[in-house]
Specification:
The chain is built from one helix and three strands. By secondary structure, the chain is of the alpha+beta class. It has one domain. InterPro entries: DUF5703 (IPR043758).
Length: about 70
């Protein structure tokens, strides 16, 4: 099962579409985030939810117990 971590951004009204696109592009390029959900409210503000995968490391090497 894939696990995600989420980041919620709230942009005030008056933020242009181009500014919102630029903010999301920077998060995607430098932080590895992808768009999960975007909501545009009637007052013009936006709520953007970004997500990225949680990568868990799995130990593949086990040292031999002492004395073996």
């Amino acid at each position: 099962m894939v696990e995600y971590t989420y980041l919620v951004l709230r942009l005030p009204r008056g933020t242009t579409r181009n500014e919102a696109r630029q903010i999301m592009a920077e998060h995607a390029e430098y932080g590895g985030w992808e768009l999960d959900r975007l909501r545009l409210y009637s007052d013009g503000s936006r709520r953007i939810r970004l997500r990225r995968k949680i990568i868990r490391q799995v130990r593949t090497f086990r040292p031999a117990p002492p004395g073996s």
